[in-house]
Design a protein that fits this description.
single chain; 206 residues; mainly alpha; 8 helices
């Protein structure tokens, strides 16, 4: 029985460590990818000013308004994904994983619908950057949701979060001592009973 308990603890501890590793990877992914998307959109909007004269001389449509739309999209979706990522990895919030999947899917569909936008024909890398970000964000949200399911099952198991038999035995002993102490405290009385006064035999006094 003890070997079975130790095996269960070891298995549950390994699952918990795996969940924590996944949370760690997702935590950095959500933050770094969103920051990089914002930087990419912002720098693109600034850098196109160098080629503005050439674009206007060629009679082509200016790129600035289109890059501004990309920056707006990044300014909306990226902070949301950071918040959802923190809620998934730190609070293990299932609804945040659902919202993250929903908004990244909506953003992915938006860019696929706009695939024939003339702007993307001239700057195809922008299309692929946003599509890749949305697809990877959707994948991360699904992984986070699946990890949350496993984590919620683990946190209900006996021994969570240490899954250490020795610690559990110590806690059981402490709980038993605390229960006994509380029982004695409830049954004990502050009033001290008067002890009977011994009476000496009158014959002994004589």
């Amino acid at each position: 029985m003890k070997e079975i308990l130790e095996y269960d603890y070891a298995r549950n501890r390994a699952l918990l460590m795996k969940c924590n590793r996944i949370y760690g990877v997702l935590f950095f992914y959500f933050i770094l990818s969103s920051i990089l998307l914002l930087l990419y959109s912002f720098l693109n909007l600034i850098c196109i000013g160098v080629d503005a004269n050439l674009i206007m001389k060629a009679g082509a449509e200016p790129l600035a308004p289109n890059y501004l739309l990309l920056l707006i999209d990044a300014a909306v979706i990226a902070p949301m994904m950071i918040v959802f990522g923190l809620m998934i990895t730190q609070r293990h919030h299932d609804l945040s994983a659902f919202f993250a999947a929903f908004f990244t899917t909506a953003n992915l569909i938006l860019f696929i619908v706009k695939r024939n936008w003339a702007f993307f024909d001239r700057v195809p890398i922008s299309f692929w950057v946003f599509v890749l970000y949305s697809f990877l964000g959707l994948t991360a949200a699904v992984i986070g949701f699946h990890t949350n399911i496993i984590f919620h099952k683990i946190e209900l198991l006996p021994g969570y979060p240490q899954f250490n038999e020795r610690l559990d035995e110590q806690n059981i002993k402490i709980d038993q001592f605390q229960c006994e102490y509380n029982r004695l405290k409830r049954t004990s009385s502050d009033k001290m009973e008067e002890l009977p006064t011994p009476q000496l035999n009158e014959n002994n006094n004589e």
